[in-house]
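job 3f2a | input accepted
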Amino acid sequence: MDEAARAKIRGALREAILSLCNSAVDFQLELSVEGLLGITVDRRDVFLVNVNEISRSDEYEDQLDEPVSPTTSASEQSETKTKVLGLSKTKKIRSL
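job 3f2a | predicted structure (96 res):
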């Protein structure tokens, strides 16, 4: 399999996976999709597809405008973001 075919498959897979997740997962601000997929052709030609995509809602930038102090601890920053965003729990994505 030549590099052009591999690039075409990589792009199509990334787009399809992100589209599937966007339609199947209800999120408020941001959806991150990360993974590594191995594809073997005819038991001899192996290539990897790295997926690292982020989908953001229209409200994403509006919700994160409040600055966080540089002296604030990581847990305090997390709590602050949770309060600012109005989130009461973290959503988890099931493996496909």
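job 3f2a | The longest helix spans residues 3-24.
job 3f2a | closed
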